[in-house]
Amino acid sequence: MSDLAIPAEIKYSVDHEWVKVDGNSATIGITAFAQDQLGDIVYVELPPIGKEFKVKDEFGVVESVKSVSSLFCPVAGKVTAINEGLNGSPELVNASPYEKAWMIKVEIANPAELAGLLSAEEYKKLTEGK
Amino acid sequence: MLKTTPLIEEHKKLGAKVVPFAGWEMPVSYKGIIAEHNAVRTSVGIFDIGHMGLIKVVGDGAFDFLQKVTTNDVSKLALNQCQYSILCNEAGGAIDDVLVYKMPMYCLVVCNASNFDKVISWLSFQAKSFNNVSVGHYNEYSSLALQGPRAEELASKVLNVNLSDLKRNRTLWWRDIIISRTGYTGEDGFELMVSKKEVVKIWQMFIEAGVEPCGLGARDTLRLEAGLPLYGHEYDEETTPLEAGYSWAVKFDKGSFVGKEALLKEKESGLKKKLVGLAPEGRQIPRAGDNVFTGEDLIGKVTSGTFSPTLKKAVALAYLNPQEGQLGNSVEIEIRGKRIPAKVVAKTFYKR
User: Could you give one GO CC term from the UniProt record (chain B) (predicted)?
Assistant: First the structure.
């Protein structure tokens, strides 16, 4: 699994989502490790803009050929944007998990919660510890 | 403790994702399910199916015995031919669906990995009322499946054998390999029963010849597109072969067999449920267990669903009550609490 990227500059959740923080906005997607475990992604369901989530709320689902997985919100907040492109091209989650396949942007409700996320190094340990 | 086929190290070398399946440690995919699926539809792929149960039936009473425990007519089998059949219980429910092979010295029953223990004990129990029949594990062989439009070309080349005259459901002994023109993908192809001592070598020869290694993930999407049933999904002990759409493999005119009375009764009084294909709208994928409705009425359940790599859309098999299960009917599938419109269609989503 060592060849799967874990960029150092972003944060991670134990549920294999990544979080890129920019001011009070967080961009969220799933990690390279997660997409590799799931295999070919064929459907991504995202929430409507404006919907509010608490930490660990299910914000959507991602389906591979074989299975359905819930997406859990790693930070609380209101959805300000969703990646419409994933509707027609869910395979982007496999091809570009950290860039083209970002899933949602949220307005961060409580910046203090960000401290609960994992660093790249901690996330790497989590994926290797399996 | 999971069982492994002789090929487990080969799978790991090829980078396979290996998962527990029916008590076996098996590759689910190598490159990716969709790429493997497409290789079988357009070229050729090879599967390790060493988990399939191989059961040998020997003795003078073997044919009478198989005639009694299976639904199809073994008297129609020529030497070196096989037939699809179902082992039923007295209520007509499927204990397993199998292939029955008539070989020169004995018969073989190929059953599902998940049912092997159950099938061998059921057959052994039934064999007690026959003189001169013995049932045993055919343990020296492990199976491979070579599937796809280029299967004949590659099998001929790699094994140096002429297969152009080998018809569907016929077998050929070639050195120590039983080559059978059968498969579970909806494509042309072969299943090879290979001595366990040779199977690693044979596998490697096909891989070196450029045949795509394919896992259980692609095996499932391929069989589902072809509308082929999988035990535990489309079959169980409460489901009859008539309901699954296999009345052609139930031969009422062959004499007595286990389950005959119950199946005859069902045939006369009408089926309780019927296996159909469902073509849902949109990209959401129905999964096994999803309920199917028309209006407020629950009319059935999805048994298998997937994304079809060939059609590039969701497909599903479902048991519906027969009135609602007519081709062309509009129904709704409840997927994660939402109703998705779908049409009842033929089970064979893909035909070559």
Answer: cytosol
